[in-house]
Amino acid sequence: MAYQFYIKYIHAYQWFHTVDTDRSGFINLKELKQALVNSNWSAFNDETCLMMINMFDKSRSGRMDLFSFSALWEFMQRWRALFQQYDRDRSGCISGTELQQALAQMGYNLSPQFSQTLVQRYTLQGGRPGIQLDRFIQVCTQLQTMTQVFREKDTSMTGNIRLNYEDFLSGAVTRLM
């Protein structure tokens, strides 16, 4: 077990130093965006990169140190494996049906129509229908975040909550931005 952690850390360490092109000891948005690619070799979108920096940047400086980057590395490996598991046709994109199956495995009981709406919302304009890895990570992470907000309010675990608009926005903004 310790050996596996060591190997993962070495990979993250090597990748960190490759990505840290200005040799500052930190990874910023520009460097992260240049380092992450989808299966069709397109760069990750700015929104997903910024979201990931915000998730792992504990100092709120807009950049990540090696420790934060190592956590991001592990996060990315898990999401990439899940993406590849459900990209059954190996198209490099998750279809509505594939997304529905992935979300169901993660414990979400959502309608096929909702999954299709997500795919339509996050498909690149002019591109093939489906969600690439970067947007898959964005969708799933935002869904997890919104579910956490919902569960905090659903103290009786009924699946229903009552809140005013500002409470909803406060919960969403503090976690998503």
UniProtKB/TrEMBL annotation:
- Subcellular locations according to the entry: Cytoplasmic vesicle, COPII-coated vesicle membrane; Endoplasmic reticulum
Q: Which Pfam families match?
A: EF-hand_5, EF-hand_6
Protein name in UniProt: Peflin
Residue stretches making up the EF-hand domain: 7-42, 74-109
Instruction: Name the InterPro entries on file.
Output: EF-hand-dom_pair, EF_Hand_1_Ca_BS, EF_hand_dom, Peflin/Sorcin_CaBP
Q: Name one GO biological process term.
A: COPII vesicle coating
- CDD domains per the record? EFh_PEF_peflin (cd16184)
The scientific name of the source species is Sander lucioperca (Pike-perch)
Q: How the protein sits in the membrane?
A: Peripheral membrane protein
* Gene3D superfamilies named in the record: EF-hand
Q: Under the cellular component aspect of Gene Ontology, which terms does the record hold?
A: endoplasmic reticulum; ER to Golgi transport vesicle membrane
Q: A single GO molecular function, which one?
A: calcium-dependent protein binding
Q: Which UniProt keywords apply?
A: Calcium, Cytoplasm, Cytoplasmic vesicle, Endoplasmic reticulum, Membrane, Metal-binding, Repeat
Q: Which gene encodes it?
A: pef1
Q: Which SMART domains match?
A: EFh
Amino-acid biosynthesis is among the record's keywords: no
Per the UniProt record, the lineage of the source organism begins with: Eukaryota, Metazoa, Chordata, Craniata, Vertebrata
Output the SUPFAM superfamilies linked to this UniProt entry: EF-hand
Keyword match Endoplasmic reticulum: yes
